[in-house]
């Protein structure tokens, strides 16, 4: 990551200072901040009580970036797998990076799933019953499947996810 430098006046003298990408707390008071390589602020800059809703959970199968995932109990251990409307595996969140089976996945429970492609902005997205972990513009309709609205497409590459209780199709 390149270092952004800014001209400022400290004690009456001009100084060239570097922007910070993460905060170490009060030691970084009054410093200029910069976005990261994704163009976003690091979570360390958020005030107390405000946090990104994530959880590290072991994956029971390989996950692709952008997969919507289901958190489940595997003999007393919380694990994560691809959500699937065909077998009632509701989406509790999503992942933004590839995860190997057995490794910890960072599960985002709200926010923008920005690891997608081919979406129509503004379109409502549902959990897919044909491709596990993915979304579709058409709600499932077969008996035994679930309908779960995942959110809407903010852009061609992002769905604003908010958990919605699914409806079972009889």
List the helices and strands and how they pair.
Elements: E1 5-10, E2 13-18, E3 54-59, E4 68-74, E5 77-82, E6 93-94, E7 104-108, E8 111-113, E9 124-127, E10 135-136, E11 146-147, E12 149-155, E13 158-161, E14 167-168
Parallel strand pairs: 3-5
Antiparallel strand pairs: 1-2, 3-7, 4-5, 4-6, 8-13, 9-10, 9-12, 11-14, 12-13
Model description:
With 170 residues, this protein is mainly β. It has strands at residues 5-10, 13-18, 54-59, 68-74, 77-82, 93-94, 104-108, 111-113, 124-127, 135-136, 146-147, 149-155, 158-161, 167-168. It has two domains: 5-38, no CATH class; 55-170. It is elongated, with a radius of gyration of 20 Å.
